[in-house]
Amino acid sequence: MPRTERAPAERKPKSAFKTIARISQYMLHKSWMLALSVVFVLISAGAGVAGTYFLKPLINEGILPLIGQDSQTADFRPFIQMILGMSTIYLIGALSSYIYSFLMIKVSNGTLNAIRKDMFNSMQDATIKYFDTHTHGELMSRYTNDVDAVREAISIGLSMLMASFITIVGTFVMMLILSPLLTLMIVIMLLVMFAITRMVSSRSSLYFKKQQKVMGTVNGYIEEIIEGQKVVKVFSHEEEVKKAFAKLNEDLRGVATDANTYANIMMPIMGNLSYLNYAFTAAVGAVMVINNRMDIGTIAAFLQYTRSFSHPIAQISQQFNAILAALAGAERIFEVIDEKPEQDKGFVSLVNVDKEETCIISESKVCTGVWAWKYQQPDGTATYTELTGDIRFANLNFGYDENKIVLHDISIFAKPGQKIALVGSTGAGKTTITNLLNRFYEVPGDKIFYDGIDINDIKKDDLRRSLGMVLQDTHMFSDTVRENIRYGKLEAADAEVIEAAKLANAHCFIMNLPEGYDTRLVLDGANLSAGQRQLIAIARAAIANPPVLILDEATSSIDTRTEALVEKGMDKLMHGRTVFVIAHRLSTVRNADAIIVMENGKVIERGSHDDLIAKHGKYYQLYTGNFDLDVLSTGS
Known about the structure:
- The chain is an alpha/beta fold.
- It is built from 19 helices and 14 strands.
- The chain has a six-stranded mixed sheet with strand order 10-11-12-7-13-14, with helices on both faces. Strands 2-1-3-4 form a four-stranded antiparallel sheet.
- It is elongated.
């Protein structure tokens, strides 16, 4: 099924309070640390407020009495005591700031650790269709841009908001105590600042959401081009790719400029308004001092409170945009976490069994190489059906989109131990059949049977454990060759790894690698040839030792000489197993027990190679090359 682009929706958070509540649940894993950080925020903010108030007695009782006195006879003890007191208070505040910042970093990292874990686990449980409809870049932006936005909001924004709020409340109370009249002036200016903040923030919020959306598109395009770099160079499309990226990048520059323009002008606006407020307050206060309605210490402390009052307001306004971005990012993260997992109502499990001469089957705790389907009965007893590999499709109709059916009335069967080849033009529906056999997509009941069992009744993990797949597009992990082969059976010993490699005829080339089986693969196996990667993928399937094999163009990237060697190993691997082979190279399926020819989602021929050649039908045309390929827009 082709992947379609779907950019994040441009919208405000559906429910800010709900999103905040969910983030809070993650933060509560360190509730004691969070509570302790709140205490130190209170101490830090309180120290700032209390330290400022010390200016009043310091000036009135510590400095003014010394004016005009002889330095030799003046008593500096009150002044020194007040300076030491102020220093102690500010030192306590600075230490508290360091502690709560440290604690909030611990809380934020722990919170993001849990969020990333839930997001990754949810993706592992998501359906294949989910990945078909989301680009890699879009999904990666959830782990990078969105998670980073949440991190900043928790580690910096949250503590700053708490400290600013406490500072504002404490400062406002102290300002009321010092001068209610001047406080009223500050409140009027505050209302003006809030109005401006709201106007600018609304515009900034809009562009920040656009920025998140465009950034996901840009990341997706970059990843797509990196993966397809060889194709770009083969067709000499570097300039076209540059132009396409330049347009996307320009779109990002535009929305990022708008977003940050509004965000960055917030501080200058608030700063200038606070300076204006400060100057006006100083002028009015000076008049009050001249008229003996206020002392110098009070006006000095009040002016300092004025600065302390406007600064946290400016900080809150600046953090408001970051909080909005974090909430939007958190909502996108929770969309991944809340993605509906793969449904599995299966109740039949796959177990190892011992089969006695009397044909009595008993479950075994060790690997015996004999498998059976286990039915757990309501009364606690269990019945077993031996796994033979009998696969049947009965009048199956299927479409990735319910409005577009790609398989029409498919009825095929594979008897135990048979090798079934699926051939046909691109888009005929061959790979779709194997996808449905793996239950990568949901199918209606009573359409696909495995040993007489509706595959919907089989647990998905057990079903897939019984099926070994070698795909045309191999994937190598960034690990050693040994571990890439062992991925088919994680508990396999080194001897089993080597045996599987020999079976796939991969042992010789592996031993010629710089570090043999310990050679580390990078960038999806970029340090190997395509054929070598496919040989390792075949060895990975061999070590899993599955009862049923699906080979989707498994030898497409292997040269003719190597293919002959691999086929000998594959014959050993396929012996006694039911095998489905998808192949465009028809010479590889001549010895199949049955060849199924498909066209436009329908089965049009079935038979052995000789029978189909004798019919002079579609297979004959495909085999002799006397045909026109019908390349469809849908995947095969």
